[in-house]
Amino acid sequence: MVKSMYAAIAGLRTHQSKMDVISNNIANVNTWGYKTRSANFQDAMYQNMVNSTGGNVANGGSGGVNASQIGYGVNMGSITTNFATGSWGYTGRSLDCMINGTGFFIVGPMKEGEISADDISKSGLSLSKVGIFSVDNNGYLVDASGNYVYGFAPNAGEDAEGFDTSKLVPIKAPVPDGEEGGSVIASYTIKADGSITCVTEDSETITIGQLAVASVTNPNGLSQSSGYLYDIGENAGAVSGIATTGATGEILSNYLEMSNVDLSTDMANMITTQRGYQANTKIITVTDEMLEQLVNMKR
């Protein structure tokens, strides 16, 4: 009889974990780039009361018997992330941008040596869906946490066009040099293909680089760390840095990606989770009453 007690306890624990997931979604309903998560239940272990047997058609044999099993409640099977693109939030800042698609920005600390764009899974860089960018005192493009933003440098040469998409580098704008002079940057523009141009106070237009977009085979293989960042897990598959395409999505300047939390869905899930939790508490109460009746049979 106490099997019901343990099954109900497992139900309480799992429903509490689901409520934790729901509460995190609701708490981040206004967080830039947040991706909603879903808690998925699965059956706990089973005890066979009767084992399954096959039929015996020989003389005197009997037919097959199906298994009879008693379950021990529920466990949290998985917590999945919905990477659908959120709505556009207009900010009016030219260095704010979002990816209208499945791609990710590539950010991280300064790295020595070349970083191949073909495979960045072991590069130590992180991914992000939030493009709150600015230029630091050294002219580097950084995110809100001070991580360098990686992309492609313009091809070298006077008549060269396009970008070197074979390797990733931190994007850097020219800064005035105390000895050699130089013009102060007056404004920045990020185009739909990720290319970044700046206009100096002398009205000179300079292309400083192109934002790289990470293409991830399995986004649910990413692990979210602090802030807006995702670490590249072993199950993420191939991760490469590429220029924007129709598959990864175009860059939208002056916008940030809003949370994709559906508040009405999470409120409904909260109600059903609360009722599931309440039903499991009733199982514990009824089991306790049955045990009390059993104890009181002999007075």
Question: What can be said about this structure in brief?
Answer:
This protein has two helices and 23 strands. The chain has about 300 residues and is α+β, with helices and mostly antiparallel strands.
How does this model look, in words?
With 299 residues, the chain is of the alpha+beta class. The protein has two domains: 3-54 and 63-83 and 262-295, no CATH class; 88-257, no CATH class. It is 19% helix and 33% strand. The strands form six sheets. Strands 7, 8, 9, 13, 14, 15, 16, 17, 18, 19, 20 and 21 form a twelve-stranded antiparallel sheet that branches. The protein has a three-stranded antiparallel sheet with strand order 10-6-22, with no helix packed on it. Strands 1-4 form a two-stranded antiparallel ribbon. A hairpin with a 4-residue loop joins strand 15 and strand 16 (195-200). Helix 1 runs antiparallel to helix 2. The longest helix has 33 residues, at 263-295. The mean pLDDT is 90.
| Discrete helix count | 2
Distance N to C terminus: 21 Å
Radius of gyration: 28 Å
Major sheet, described briefly? 12 strands, antiparallel
Percentage of β-strand residues: 25-35%
What is the H/E string? Answer: HEEEEEEEEEEEEEEEEEEEEEEEH
Spans of at least 5 consecutive residues with low confidence: none
